[in-house]
Design goal:
The complex is a heterodimer of chains A (279) and B (284).
Chain A (H helix, E strand, L loop, with lengths): L15 H4 L2 H15 L5 H18 L3 H9 L2 H14 L5 E5 L2 E4 H27 L2 H12 L9 H31 L9 H7 L1 H24 L18 H22 L1 H4 L9
Antiparallel strand pairs in A: 1-2
Helix pairs in contact in A: 2-6, 2-7, 2-11, 3-6, 3-11, 4-6, 5-6, 7-8, 8-10
Chain B lengths: L1 E15 L5 E15 L3 E5 L6 H8 L7 E6 L2 E2 L6 H7 E4 L12 H12 L3 H14 L15 H13 L5 E5 L7 H16 L3 E6 L10 E6 L2 E6 L1 H6 L1 H7 L5 H11 L11 H14 L1
Parallel strand pairs in B: 3-8, 3-9, 6-7, 7-8
Antiparallel strand pairs in B: 1-2, 1-4, 4-5, 9-10
Classes of the chains: A mainly alpha (279), B alpha/beta (284).
The structure holds adenosine-5'-triphosphate and magnesium ion.
The site of magnesium ion has 4 residues of chain B, from helix 1.
Chain lengths: 279, 284
């Protein structure tokens, strides 16, 4: 059912991107996500595409794994595209049929929004595909560490996140199993009105909740048995060290997005000089 | 030397019915037991007889309501000693998926030593050793949930071993595995025992108790009998009472012996028994 969500699924490899420091990748990913909203022209998207192609190439992650995560948001993509196409009322009217009017601006907005969302997902899944959840959470933990001064539970939060991530696959399996078990007993999830269908999911949710609690208890026992006592005097096996790869990665991202920010900031001033840059 | 000592231990669970009335359920009742250094102890009994409860009492996950559990002379009820106790008694549970804390094998194995605050270099070494002990050294960087059940369970054992315990408790750690996975895990347990580890194996597969030094049979929260595997297998009345059956090879050997065949009634090995039967058939 939800098998195709690659989110949090690490793709093991020894590539350049894999070897970069998780903290750096995290920060760069955040920069990328913010930056992508400043890209307003197709030329800009071309840049981003080149950058992503480069990043994917150096990550050795097969395109298939990345596209898999895009597949997960197909519904959202189609929905936003449609909304943009039908509700934009500026530009030249292209189609006028019954209650539908399609303007060229609508198509352009839809296209850009589509690219933006796809690239957001591609960028973030590139992070999760090349960084183990452990590295990711450790990275987050160490980025958030300064907040410990204000009693922010960085370690605990990181642990909760990593546990959640590692529980997702088994939770999905469990859901699948329960759905099949209920179907075998004659449960019907595919027909009836919205309310009826929603009701049909109760027999899934309750066993899922129960098994979730059971899992949580077993996990708590396992953690206690392995001497867990929170963040006090805990050490880490993984050492996080910055290397030349991080310097290269930072430089590339900073250059690409500085260019994008500059183009964005100068929109009014230069759009007459080099209009293609802003299309 | 007795390293684990249970004296008159009882533990009760509280349950609630639909109206919210609480009632007491026996987990274990009046159990006395001592486990010696280096022993291979098998704990058997049917579902719900209190095996897991007993296991959790051994490292202070549960505390006795009455009686006393001592591990290396430390009372599990003494909360200041709890980490010392858990360092000594490693525990592996039934469902391998529910005891993975991290998703990469080596990170998961490192979880215990990290909790103990061990220096980084030593953690790396411990993780390596532990993975070697369970024969999973090549899998250090792999994603844990993609491994087979037997492999996952061996990783869970490695996770316990990385803490360097003196006692390893396996609570039905083979129950969810196929015969091959069961063999893998059991093999690791036996090998660890041979290198000096005290192992407490909880199981309901009677084949797995054959090599134990001591078998503890539980029934309805009580210890019904303790003894060597043969002593237990020969006590037919007890087995019937607690609803267990001797391994099939043992049953067959006994039946053949009774029927007048020249078969050792204490034979436990199926292959050996098979050979013997073939030999006898050929003679006739
Ligand atoms: N958390 C709990 N709350 C209430 N009752 C419990 C709880 N855990 C166990 N029990 C009850 O205590 C008794 C002993 O349970 P325990 O889990 O120790 O048995 P077990 O021998 O491990 O069984 P199994 O072979 O199924 O693992 C059972 O009757 C069980 O129903
Ligand atoms: Mg049990």
């Amino acid at each position: 059912m939800f098998r195709d969500v690659t989110f949090g699924q690490y793709y093991p490899s020894n590539s350049f991107v894999h070897k970069m420091d998780a903290r750096v990748k995290l920060l760069l990913c955040i920069l990328f996500m913010v930056g992508i909203f400043f890209v307003t022209s197709f030329v800009g998207f071309l840049w981003v595409t080149l950058f992503l192609a480069l990043a994917i190439g150096f990550s050795k992650v097969p395109l298939k794994s990345i596209l898999k995560s895009v597949k997960g948001i197909v519904v959202l993509l189609v929905l936003t595209a449609l909304l943009n196409v039908f509700f934009t009322k500026t530009g030249n009217l292209l189609v006028d049929w019954w209650i539908f009017q399609i303007y060229d601006d609508g198509l352009i907005y839809a296209g850009k929004m589509f690219l933006r969302l796809v690239y957001l997902v591609v960028g973030s899944s590139l992070l999760t595909l090349t960084t183990t959840p452990v590295d990711l959470t450790h990275g987050m933990e160490s980025l958030l560490k300064p907040l410990r001064i204000i009693k922010f539970p960085a370690h605990e939060l990181a642990l909760i996140m990593s546990l959640t991530l590692s529980f997702i696959p088994s939770l999905i399996e469990e859901t699948d199993r329960i759905i099949r078990a209920q179907k075998a007993r004659g449960a019907d999830f595919d027909t009836g009105g919205l309310v009826q269908r929603a009701k049909a999911f109760v027999p899934i949710l309750i066993p899922l909740l129960v098994s979730g609690f059971r899992r949580a208890e077993e996990l708590a026992n396992a953690m206690n048995s392995r001497c867990y006592e929170g963040s006090t005097h805990r050490t880490k096996m993984r050492v996080q060290k910055l290397g030349w790869r991080d310097a290269v990665g930072i430089s590339v991202v900073v250059v690409v997005f500085s260019a994008i920010f500059v183009v964005h900031a100068t929109k009014g001033a230069w759009s007459n000089l080099v209009p293609w840059l802003y299309f | 030397m007795d390293i684990i000592q249970l004296t008159n231990v009882s533990h009760y669970y509280k349950t609630y019915d639909e109206e919210g009335n609480s009632s007491k359920v026996v987990g274990v009742e009046n159990v006395s037991l001592s486990i010696k250094q280096g022993q291979f102890v098998a704990l058997v009994g049917h579902n719900g007889c209190g095996k897991s409860t007993l296991a959790k009492l051994l490292n202070g996950l549960l505390l006795p309501d009455t009686g006393k559990v001592e591990v290396f002379g430390m009372d599990t009820a003494d909360r200041s000693k709890i980490f010392e106790i858990r360092k000594n008694v490693g525990m592996v549970f039934q469902n391998p998926d529910n005891q993975m804390v991290e998703s990469i094998v080596e990170d998961d194995v490192a979880f215990g030593p990290e909790n103990l605050g061990i220096p980084q270099a030593e953690i790396v070494e411990r993780v390596q050793t532990a993975l070697q002990q369970v024969g999973m050294a090549d899998f250090a960087k792999r994603t844990a949930h993609k491994l087979s059940g037997g492999q996952k369970q061996r990783i869970a054992i490695a996770g316990a071993l990385a803490i360097r315990p003196n006692v390893l408790v396996l609570d039905e750690s083979t129950a969810m595995l196929d015969p091959l996975g069961r063999k893998e895990v059991l093999g690791v347990a036996k090998q660890l025992n041979q290198s000096g580890m005290t192992v407490v194996l909880i199981t309901h597969f009677m084949e797995e108790v054959l090599d134990a030094d001591l078998v503890v049979v539980m029934n309805e929260g009580h210890v019904a009998k303790t003894g060597t595997p043969m002593e237990i297998f020969n006590d037919e009345q007890l087995l019937a009472e607690v609803g267990l059956q001797a391994p099939r090879a043992v049953q067959l050997a006994k039946k053949l012996h009774k029927a007048g065949w020249d078969v050792d009634s204490n034979c436990t090995d199926a292959t050996q028994l098979g050979g013997k039967v073939c030999q006898l058939l050929r003679k006739n």
